[in-house]
Write a structure and sequence with these properties.
globular, seven-stranded antiparallel sheet, 34% helix
């Protein structure tokens, strides 16, 4: 079924291009080739790290932003005490292409939610939480839903998956070493 949807999306995309070139009106909604994918990352939290320490970092949007290896700069664009906090973030794709986007951060009791409005119609919604099942070691769980053009999603998936796995490891390292 997914292969059929991909083929339909590719045909729709090319029909849009052909009709634009020929000057014919386009009656295809560009969102018709949008799709949503889900990325989940689970990272065990060592027993030596307290839940409150993890939540302190998770609830510090500026720290979370800069733990992402792609981020080059950020600026708070909402009032400092605003909920949710809104940031303008600049990072690089493939280490060379700068891109700036808007991200919102909202803290929950044991979680953080994010919404990123990136270029090219890409939107991500993230939910980060500390979970523990049946008294087992706590885990940092991230669920990220990415919505955008089906032709861009493989690229976006690889960038988000890689950078967020590194972000998880940097967060644990920060809590382990204190730096």
């Amino acid at each position: 079924m997914m292969l059929l949807n991909l083929k339909i999306s590719i045909v729709t995309f090319f029909l849009c291009i052909v009709t634009q070139i020929m000057g014919a009106p386009v009656n295809i909604d560009p969102r018709s080739i949008d799709q949503t994918i889900t990325i989940t990352i689970d990272t065990p939290i060592p027993a030596t790290i307290s839940l409150s320490a993890v939540l302190d970092v998770l609830h510090d949007a500026d720290t979370m932003i800069h733990l992402n290896p792609l981020v080059k700069s950020s600026a708070l664009t909402s009032a400092p005490a605003a909920i949710p906090a809104v940031y303008s973030i600049t990072d690089t794709l493939f280490g060379i292409i700068p891109t700036t986007y808007i991200a919102t951060f909202q803290n929950g009791p044991a979680s953080m939610d994010t919404v990123v409005s990136a270029g090219l119609g890409i939107t991500t919604t993230g939910h980060w939480e500390v979970t523990s099942v049946d008294g087992s070691s706590p885990t940092l769980h991230e669920r990220c839903d990415v919505t955008g053009n089906v032709l861009l999603l493989p690229l976006v998936r690889s960038q988000v998956q890689s950078s967020h796995e590194q972000l998880h490891q940097a967060l644990i390292a920060k809590l382990t070493t204190g730096s």
